[in-house]
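Review form for a predicted model. The reviewer records the input and the model, then writes brief findings.
Reviewer: anonymous (R2)
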Amino acid sequence: MGCLLHCGALRQNNLSVEMLFRPVDGNSLVRATFEMHRFSNFLNHLRLDDKATRTERRARDLFAPIRDVWNSFHDNQAKTLQ
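Model under review:
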C-alpha cells in the first residue's frame, strides 16, 4: 500500500507497470520493493471496493471506494504509535 500511496503522491498512478520499472525515469522505490512481475500480480489481485454497494455508498461518501481500507490503515497506524 505504501508504494501505491507513494506513486499517487508523485502523480504516477496512471503510469503502466513497465513505465514504473524503467531504470532511468521509473520509480526507484517501487523497483527496490518489488520485482516487476510481483508488483503486476499484486495490482491484478488488489480489490478495495465492493461493486455491489458502490453507488449507494458513493452517494454519501466520495471516498467510499477505499474508505474501509483507509480506516483500517489509519487504525493500525494509531495502534502502532500508542
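Findings: The chain has a mean pLDDT of 87.
Further findings: Helices lie at 2-9, 17-20, 28-33, 36-45, 54-60, 64-81.
Recommendation: see findings above.
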